[in-house]
Amino acid sequence: MKYRIGVFVLTILSLVTVGWAAELCQHDLMVRGGAVYLAMRGDIGAGNLEAAQLKARELVDVSKEIQYLWVTQNTNWQVDDGVEWAQDSHQKSIELLKILEEGDLDAAAAALQATGQACGACHQKYRPARRTRQ
Ligand code: HEC
Q1: Domain coordinates of the chain in residue numbers?
Q2: How confident is the prediction along the chain (134 residues), in pLDDT tens digits per residue?
Q3: Architecture of the domain made up of 2-126
Q4: Measured on CA atoms in the order 96, 126, 14, 27, is the torsion positive or negative?
Q5: Protein residue with least CA distance to atom 12, ligand 1
């Protein structure tokens, strides 16, 4: 009996730890994504094409990881619309990188906004709710 209780407690503890680690991981990604997004907006505004391209590459990576987390990790709040927004913001950041590689700064400004809207769609539904729990 004692053994069973021990196994039960250990199982619960490891589930809590895994969930907590996934949230920390997600928070780091969001902070990185936000910083890269703002810096890229500055680069595009100032016409620094190469600097903007570097950041766009990083945003492609970050948004891919966000998508990965939503699809695979957060089973407690894995919901279809969140997964779709994660996929959408990743796709939009790939398009943004393509446009920057073609050197079109005006189109890049519009694509950056479209990417931000995809990120924002998810925030509208999931960010405030999660903040109040912190
Ligand atoms: C699938 C949903 C989803 C998508 C897509 C998403 N986010 Fe988030 N984001 C969240 C949630 C939930 C939080 C609040 C919890 C946290 O910070 O971990 C958050 C928080 C943030 C924060 C605030 C971090 C802080 O300092 O508190 C920033 C900045 C951010 N996201 C940037 C982005 C950017 C940029 C993108 C698009 C490339 C993006 N997010 C896409 C769900 C999402």
Answers
A1: 2-126
A2: 788 888 777 777 777 766 666 677 889 999 999 999 999 999 999 999 999 999 999 999 999 999 998 888 655 555 678 888 999 999 999 999 999 999 999 999 999 999 999 999 999 988 866 554 43
A3: Up-down Bundle (1.20)
A4: positive
A5: 127
